[in-house]
Design goal:
Number of strands: 5
Mean pLDDT: 77
Strand content: 25-35%
Structural class: alpha+beta
Helix content: 25-40%
Low-confidence stretches: 14-24
Shape: elongated
Number of domains: 1
Length: about 110
């Protein structure tokens, strides 16, 4: 197994293991990227949802923090495939510098 495949596999297993915390409808991950000069403040959100018919969807939303961003919804036949696709995208974004949001209070 390549190192990249190991990372994707670990993220994928984490996504599946945290699913129940977000309800029966799926999971959601939000990551952020800030530039060193603070002029770049972006977000990327991934959510796996059950659709109204019989499948699952991967919803991706991205853009500047404070704006609605762009949304793409991709259909999948089952939750596992949707979560796996989301895990691959998350791994790519994390390699590009996206991180979990820091929750710090200003003093």
């Amino acid at each position: 197994m390549t190192p990249q495949a190991g990372i994707v596999s670990a993220i994928y297993e984490t996504v599946l293991s945290i699913g129940p915390e977000f309800g029966d409808d799926g999971v959601m991950i939000i990551i952020h990227r800030r530039g060193s000069d603070r002029s770049m403040n972006r977000f990327y959100a991934l959510a796996v949802h059950r659709d109204l018919i019989s499948g699952w969807t991967l919803q991706r939303e991205w853009g500047r923090v404070g704006s609605p961003g762009r949304v793409v919804i991709e259909p999948f036949p089952n939750e596992r495939d949707a979560a796996k696709a989301g895990a691959v995208i998350e791994a790519v974004k994390r390699r590009r510098g996206y991180r979990d949001q820091e929750n710090r209070l200003r003093q």
